[in-house]
Amino acid sequence: xxxxxxxxxxxxxxxxxxxxxxxxxxxxxxxxxxxxxxxxxxxxxxxxxxxxxxxxxxxxxxxxxxxxxxxxxxxxxxxxxxxxxxxxxxxxxxxxxxxxxxxxxxxxxxxxxxxxxxxxxxxxxxxxxxxxxxxxxxxxxxxxxxxxxxxxxxxxxxxxxxxxxxxxxxxxx
Length: 173
Hints:
By secondary structure, the chain is of the alpha/beta class.
């Protein structure tokens, strides 16, 4: 036998982070067509929105932008993170100010070189690779070879995500 309450109320609270640590590497095409079309200016003008959105999510991120063939990040800091996010537009502009290389329309090549030069990438962070160009991808190897290379950097291949911001197919990205 027993007694029960006819009505009761209970609140369960669960806290879960929105996302794990994320390292973001941009490879940006600085060719003449990107400049004259205004696309490069759009990258500059939208960068503050990008980082402020990440900050509003309380995200743990590191962002770098490469434009040089060597894959080195140009500027006063190796990456942008929540600690220097207030200066993100200026830091992004510094990174984008690097001299363009001859491989500027080879996004996969730039990303591979950027990874090779990046000692700031965290082993436990997801890796987001973003190519921005208004031209077709022109890297020497196949996309599947690069994807295998990038996914091989993580224990879980799903921790690598590749994005492209480019022109319409078939003339663009």
